[in-house]
Automatic annotation (TrEMBL):
Keywords carried by this UniProt record: Membrane, Mitochondrion, Mitochondrion inner membrane, Repeat, Transmembrane, Transmembrane helix, Transport
InterPro entries with a match to the protein in the record: MCP_dom_sf (IPR023395), MCP_transmembrane (IPR018108), Mito_2-oxodicarb_carrier (IPR051752)
Protein known as: Mitochondrial 2-oxodicarboxylate carrier
Catalysed reaction equations from the record: citrate(in) + 2-oxoglutarate(out) = citrate(out) + 2-oxoglutarate(in); hexanedioate(in) + 2-oxoglutarate(out) = hexanedioate(out) + 2-oxoglutarate(in); 2-oxoadipate(in) + 2-oxoglutarate(out) = 2-oxoadipate(out) + 2-oxoglutarate(in); heptanedioate(in) + 2-oxoglutarate(out) = heptanedioate(out) + 2-oxoglutarate(in)
A single Gene Ontology CC term: mitochondrial inner membrane
Keyword Hydrolase: no
Organism name: Drymodes brunneopygia
Principal subcellular localization: mitochondrion
KW Mitochondrion (keyword) present: yes
Role played: Transports dicarboxylates across the inner membranes of mitochondria by a counter-exchange mechanism. Can transport 2-oxoadipate (2-oxohexanedioate), 2-oxoglutarate, adipate (hexanedioate), glutarate, and to a lesser extent, pimelate (heptanedioate), 2-oxopimelate (2-oxoheptanedioate), 2-aminoadipate (2-aminohexanedioate), oxaloacetate, and citrate.
Solcar repeat residues: 1-77, 86-161
Length: 161
């Protein structure tokens, strides 16, 4: 139940967050771009503000599904500690492990999202179009570990959360 709730919250979060991610990635890679330009050139669809939505749905849905499913199930198994400091450490430890596992499982979606929303390798040619095709291309051209680029900073950011 917790995993399904996490998946639902992650998918909802992704739909809300994705347009902002498109703007963020565009501004990070092209400082002259503005939101109005993104909408004018790509509209609201898969080449505009909703570029990479499937990858963002995967990123947020999978993360939240694994995180909440693991966190609440393990939290209910491990006994509560009466000492507030030890109880904090128990919850922090479970959260850290949950965030780390969730990050490891969902980072291929994150890599795909960044490739789809970021600049394409050849200007004017769209190489990274869909989530799973992007993952397959990255795997085929760069190897399995390329799907895990940026994992350590991601764990350092999301693990403690």
């Amino acid at each position: 139940a917790f995993a399904v709730a996490g998946l639902g919250s992650g998918l909802t979060e992704a739909v809300v967050v994705n347009p902002f991610e498109v703007v963020k990635v565009t501004l990070q890679t092209n400082q002259n771009a503005f939101t109005e330009q993104i909408i004018k050139t790509g509209g609201l669809g898969s080449q505009g503000l909703n570029k990479g939505l499937t990858a963002t749905l995967g990123r947020h849905g999978v993360f939240n599904m694994v995180y909440f499913g693991f966190y609440f199930n393990v939290k209910n198994i491990l006994p509560v500690n009466k000492d507030p400091n030890l109880e904090f450490l128990r919850k922090f430890g479970i959260g850290l492990v949950s965030g780390t596992i969730a990050s490891i499982i969902n980072i291929p979606f994150d890599v795909a999202k960044s490739r789809i929303q970021g600049p394409q390798p050849v200007p004017g040619e769209i190489k990274y179009r869909t989530c799973f095709k992007t993952m397959a291309t990255v795997y085929k051209e760069e190897g399995f570990l390329a799907l895990y680029k940026g994992l350590l900073p991601k764990i350092m950011r999301l693990g403690p959360g």
